[in-house]
Amino acid sequence: MTKIITISREFGSGGRQIGHMLAEKLGIPFYDKELIKMAADDIDIEEHIFEMYDQAFMDKHETVHDILTYTYEVPMSDQIFMAQSRVIHRLAQHGPCVIVGRCADMVLKDEQCLNLYFYANVKKRVQRLLALDGLPEENAKKVEQKVREVDQKRKDYYQYYTGNEWGKPKNYHLCLDSLKAGMDACVAAVTAYMAYLG
Amino acid sequence: MTKIITISREFGSGGRQIGHMLAEKLGIPFYDKELIKMAADDIDIEEHIFEMYDQAFMDKHETVHDILTYTYEVPMSDQIFMAQSRVIHRLAQHGPCVIVGRCADMVLKDEQCLNLYFYANVKKRVQRLLALDGLPEENAKKVEQKVREVDQKRKDYYQYYTGNEWGKPKNYHLCLDSLKAGMDACVAAVTAYMAYLG
Fold it and tell me: What 3-state DSSP class applies to B48?
C-alpha cells in the first residue's frame, strides 16, 4: 500500500491538520517545517539564515533573492529548494510518511505517492481562521485578504519550482473540500481510497 | 445526509460508470441521457430533433445553432439547456439521485448536493477505452485524439452555460483520480466522505 502522502492545501483549509490526523491514524511520521531544519543540516547553511530566507520568500521573493544570491553561483532560493528536495527524497526512501507543502508531489513524481489537495470556500476558511484565533467578525475582511495573499504566494512558489499549475486536479490523486463535510470526513475518504492501492 | 450527487468527468475516466455504481450502492436513481427525453417532454419538442441537436452540439456547435435557431426567439441551444435544467430541478426535488453531466452541479448550486469530478491521466484513459472496445494498441493515437476532443467540448459546454472553468476543484466537493486506485476505491472514498454530511 502506498504510504507516502504529499499534501498541498489552500490557506485556512485545515489541510495541514488533516495531514497530521492521517499520519496519526496510519502511524507514520508527519513533516512540514522540520524539513527546513533537516535541509539546513544537509547543505551546511546556518539554520537561522535558512529560516529567515524561507520566511522572506513568502514575504517578497525578489528582494531576498537579490540580497542572498550575490555570494552564490546558484541562486540561494534554488539551493534551498534543491536541498529540501534531497531531504524529501531521503524521507520517502526511509519509509511511509506525510509531507506537507514544499512541492513534494512534484519532487517525488517518480515515487509511489498519494498526492492530496485540500481546498474550501474562502468565506468558510475565513470563519475557521477567525474561530481558531478567537477573533471577532470585524476582522473577517483582513483575514480574507491574508487568505488570498497566502494562496497567491503558494501558487507562485509551486509555479516557479514545478512549472505546473497549483490546485489543478491532474497534479493530485484526490482533491477534497475540507470544510464541506469536515476533517474527519476527509481522513475517512482518503483512507478508504488508499485501501485499494496496490 | 446529502443524497443528490452530481458528476462531471473527463472522457474515458469511467466517471459515468462510477456514478452508476454509487447509485446502485445507495439505492437511488441514476440519470444521464434519460434527462434528454424528459426535457423533450417538458417543452414539447420532438424527441428525435432533440437528440439530433444534442449530438450535433457535440459535433459542431455553430452550425446546428445556425440551423435550429432561426424559428425561435430564444436560441434552440438555450431552450434545451433551460428545459434540461428544469428537469434537473424537478429530479432534485423528487428525491435522492445521481445526475451525470449537463452542468448539474451549477444548475443545482443552491441545493444540498455533493458535486464530484472524475479525471485520470490521458494515457491511462486511452488504455481503458482500448480495452473496453477490444481495440489493438495501434489505435491509441486516434483514441487519444478523440479523448482530447471530447474533453474540449465538455469544457466549452460547461464554460458556455455556467461561466465557470470545468475541472476546477472549487466547483466540486471531491475530485478523484479514477484510474489510480480504481473505481471501487472511488465509490468507497465518496461514500466514506458522504457519511459525515449532515
Answer: helix
